[in-house]
Structure formats: structure tokens, C-alpha cells
# Entry
Amino acid sequence: MYKDKVVIVVVTIIVFSAIIFGSLMAYYTYKAPMRVDNIDDMIYVINGSSEDDNNFILERYAVLKQLSISCKMRDDKTGEVRKFSKEEMNEFNERIGGKEAVLNYLRSIEDKEERRKMIQYARENLKIITDDEMAEFCQ
Amino acid sequence: MRKVSLILKRCWYYVIGLLSFSIIGFITQRIIISVLMETNINPTQDLYNIKYYILGFGPYYLVVYTLIYFAILYFVSKYDKYIMNKLNDKLEQVKEHQKEISNWGDEDV
# Structure
């Protein structure tokens, strides 16, 4: 009787602590700095070239969205971690043109097949548009 | 001999507990991550990457489980002592009660 009680309590403690620890690990993994090969190169990619604002806009916005989770970048080679302030993040967002620029870009694609592919790519691979926005495109 | 078997038993419990703790923790972690990142869980891909997951997260799981295990061992041994003391007290009471009963029997005779 006494042994059974102890076993039940120990198993419960192990299961609950595993669930709690798993949740904490998930949170810290989610909030971990974005790992890049070179921080300056990645900032250059996010900012894009001034010649064509729509160049790789979907990918740039996806990178910015991922960066906005932690607002930190970690250089894999040197181990340097750089934190970005709210102003810097807003600046990146303005350079891209925000979500509206992404949606405008998708709307501007004239070839229907190409547009469908890009919308699918943005939704399924990059996850930068929501189901509602996708439904709006499908109408 | 008895000590060796006790140590082996504890090692076995440690390994079983570590495996259960890691599996439950990792499944929880994977589910929460996929919900937060809006990605699908792909067990085949996860099994393929298991080596990297073990190398990346294994040490954290090992350290945390070891701390929990030793904390459990400490509290269980404390509880064991508490129960033993309680049983000993009860045994003493029973002995005293039996003595009293036998004394009454002697007086009657």
C-alpha cells in the first residue's frame, strides 16, 4: 500500500516535470536568436537593394518575421549575438514596406499560374500570409 | 551483495526514468514548437534528425532529470524514515498495551 503510493507519486512527478520542462525548452527554442552565417550579410539581405524593392520581397519578409520573434541574430561562425531595438525592427519593416507591400506584390503578379504558385509558396513554405488573406486571393 | 543489487536497481530506475522523461519532454517540446511555428510534425524527418536533437537537447534533459532523480531519492528516503518511525511508535504502543493486558491478567489471578 505504502509502496504503491510512493510509486504513483514518483511517476506523476516525472511525467509532470517532463511536460513542464518540455514546454520550457520549446519556449526557449522558439525565443532563441536567429542563427545566421553572417549578421551584416543578413541585414543587407533584409534591407534589399534600392534598385528593385520587390526583389525577393517574400523571402525578405519571411526572414524579418522570423527575426521579430526574438529580435536577436546569432553569428554561427563567431558566436556574436546582436540584439535589434524596436526602432531598428521598424526600419527593416519600412524598408520592405510591411505586409501590405507583400500583398500588393502578390496582387501585382499578372500570370495566374505564377500568382497561384507564389501565393501557395508564401502560405505553405514561408508562412507569411494567413488563411483569410489566402481566401481573399482565391476570390 | 545486497548493496550491489540496490545500486543496480537504482541505476535501472534511473535509466528507465531518464528515457521516459526525455521521450515525454521531447514530444511535448516538439508539439509546442510546431504550434508556435505553425509547422507540421513530420515523424520521419524527426527520426532522421534524432542524432542532432540528442546532441542539442540531450545534455539539458540529462542534467534536469538527474537533479529531479536525486531530489526524489532524497525525499523518498526521508519519507521512508518517517514511516519507519511511525511504525516503530505504533509497535511500542502495541507492546505497552500488551504488557498492560498481561499485568491485568496477573492481578486477576
